[in-house]
Every structure is written in structure tokens, then in C-alpha cells.
Amino acid sequence: MFNSVILSCEHAGNMVPDHYQYLFDQNPEVLKTHWGWDLGAWNLAQFLSTQLNVPLYGCHTTRLLIEANRSLDNSQLFSDYSSKLSNAEKAKLIEIIYHPYRIQVREFLNTAPKSVLHLSIHSFTPIWNGVERPVDIGILYDPDQTLEHTFSLHLKEALETCLPGMKIKLNEPYKGTDDGFTTELRKQFALNQYAGIELEVSQKYTTDLSTIQDKILASIQTVVK
After folding, report:
1. Quick one: which of 210, 215, 1, 2 has its CA closest to 112?
2. How far apart are alpha carbons 191 and 203 in whole angstroms?
3. Are 1 and 115 in contact (CB under 8 A)?
């Protein structure tokens, strides 16, 4: 089905360059929460990259400074913490963090044998607005893209086999067509050349990945082999 595979992690870390530390002086603990990064996502992405022997790219700057998984015209590009920056400072963040991250992913995609499977690894908080989310692993994709739809259905089936009892959902807890890096990349490649899938794992499991990472790997291997 695919000739190339690439992994990415847009919320891999919660780093803050020294020059911008002052933005979080009043609430430094927020950087350690799900608002600051996707807890455990980078560790899972590294494990999958090593085992699958495929390239991995990550943005390790906190999403609260600049949101690598949003378009430049999205109101969430800068958070309540960084929106107070001047336009010049925002432009600098785009130049030194946002563009370099996205460019390296695009450069791989431009030269990789087609078709390409792009797995974007994320994690999500299991409790939202005081309510437990009814999903353990979400597979986000565009239902109108045949390549993505086929892969996602097969991956869901494989995950349900490997992780019985877990709630595996399509396009939950978010929609795969929401603004994101994979959404943008779909516009740049032909339908049969690129499949951009976001894999969302509940943070109930990402603090101890040993319980699920092997089974997630096996599920992916079953579909891409």
C-alpha cells in the first residue's frame, strides 16, 4: 500500500528558549500539563521510529509558544501566553521554529518514493471539561481520501485485535479534517501519493508505554507490511 513511511510529532516537548521564559513566570507549571505538550507522544514516536526503521521529526518547543500543528492564519497559532508578543517577535518564532520544523518534513515527503504514509503521533488528556472521553486511541484522517480511509479502517481492526477492551475510535477525540499539519500536506500531494494519519493516544497510557507500545507497533506492522 505504501512505499515510504514517515513519523512526526508536532507536540514533542515543552521547551522554552531562554528569551521567552518570562512569558511563563506567573504559571511555569502549565508547561508540564497537556496544554504545554503531548505527554508521552515523543517517547512513543521514538519507539515506533526505531522499530519500523523510518525517519522521525519532532517539534520540541512548547505549543504554548507557537503551535506547530496549526496553520499560520489560525487564531490558535499563538496561545494566551505568547499572543502578547509583538508582531516582529511572532514573525521571528515563525522563522526560527515553525518553518524549519515543517520544511524538513516537506523535504522528506518531496523526495520519498510514493505513496507515503505519514503518521503524526499525539496524545490527549482523558478528561476534558470534567468529562471522561470515551476513547483510548483515536485514528484521525480524511474520510474522503480513499488511501487514508482504507488504512484507517485496517488499523482500527488491527488495534482492536491487539488491544481487546480498548476503545479504538475513528476521528475521535478530534476530526482528521480539522486544521493541522497533515491537513495542509494533503493539499500538496496527489490523492494516491500521500496519506496523513494522526494517531491520538490517551495520556492514561502514555506515562507507561510498556503496556501498549508493542501492540501499537504490531498493529501498524500488520497494516503496512
Report:
1. 2
2. 32
3. yes
CATH number, domain with residue 109: 3.40.630.40
* Positive/negative CA dihedral, 165, 169, 174, 180: positive
pLDDT for residue 110 is more than 90: yes
Q: How many CA atoms lie within 13 A of 24 on its CB side?
A: 21
Q: Which domain holds residue 152?
A: 4-224
Cα of first residue to Cα of last residue in the chain, in angstroms, is 8
The model's pTM is 0.97
C-alpha cell at 204: 492514561
The CB density around residue 14, as the number of other CB atoms within 10 Å, is: 21
Domains contained in the chain, number: 1
pLDDT of res. 225: 80
Give the pLDDT mean for 188-204: 96
pLDDT interval class at 10 (50, 70, 90): very high
The rounded radius of gyration (Å) of the Cα atoms in the chain is: 17
Tens of pLDDT along 13-71? Answer: 999 999 999 999 999 999 999 999 999 999 999 999 999 999 999 999 999 999 999 99
What is the predicted pLDDT for the residue at 114? 95
